[in-house]
Fold this protein.
Amino acid sequence: MTNAHRTAITRVSLTDFRNYEILDQRFGDRSVVLYGANGAGKTNLLEAISLLGPGRGLRRTVFTELARSRGPGGWAVAAEAVGATGPVRLGTGLVAAASDPTTGPAAPISSTRQCRIDGHKVKSSGAFADHLRLTWLTPAQDRLFSGPATDRRRFLDRLVASIDPAHSRTVQAFEHAMKERNSQLAGGSGDTGWLSATETQMAEAGVAVAAGRAAAVARLADQIGDRAHASAFPPALVTLEGTLEARLDTVPAVEVEDEYRMQLLSARAMDKAAGRALAGPHRSDLVVVHGVTGIAAKNCSTGEQKALLIALILAEARLIAADFGGFSPILLLDEIVAHLDARRRAALFGELEALGAQAWATGTDRMLFSELENRAVFICVQGGRLAAED
């Protein structure tokens, strides 16, 4: 992939975001290495950039909590970028109410953030996906394979949404209908028509979620397989476990919807007793196995788990590029070199260069990124301030 298909964030401006009071920094279109002590603000900067894509960012933090602790209550993130359609200005944030000197900083006017593209207000952050695609790997994901299935479903849904932004709305529609059904069952409503309508919504959205996940996992597996013999990272064998996904392998989606709707109908008493729906895509799981050793990822060493995660992220990036007109996504890689030996560090940097993506990588030790000299912008982060190197 050439730079003609490269998207990049070239300038970032922050106001009252986390530990940044004011920041206005140009970066160019090369990759960026942010290094410095823990707590300096490296991850905060990556989080700010992650808000320039659909969703709640890499930490999934409540938006009101992103404001600087001693600030006025609001915050803003803005960037200049080279997007899929050319140069673009993206911005998002919360607007603070006027402060009162007698009561201290004011709360934001709303907990719903505003989003703008080239100065024009847009309905939601989903519109950013027309210009940029983002993906990331953070230390919290190091526990992906050994943690609860909820984490793996969230990881998978973010992957699906990166190639199909509408997927997030479908997941929200399913979760909303499921919550409504739980409430109706708990309240003992005698309105069976209302309950049936809610179950129909659950079935339609639930099967759509399962179908989107299954298609993405199949394509991810193909991407991994294509690079299995050309990568220093172990191939990850990925499969999706779930009743709806299994049925979709052999039965048309409309029939699976009917089956799931009838299953919900017959399970009302059990689900009421349990206080939740016992069947559906919210019970599915992403299963990952080391492609060389055959060991389940959850039982691999810390280093091999990290290598498998990187293999998944690189495959996801290639998948995004294939679906986004050949434009590579921007990769946010927090503490990416932790648990990697010198051979795999060099392999990672080589894979990123081959991908043609702008990567934003963080670490405490600058020397671990020495192979990126003259290929990346090095920035020292200290207490919410940046010092670029020549």
About this structure: The longest strand covers residues 8-17. The chain is about 35% helix and 20% strand.
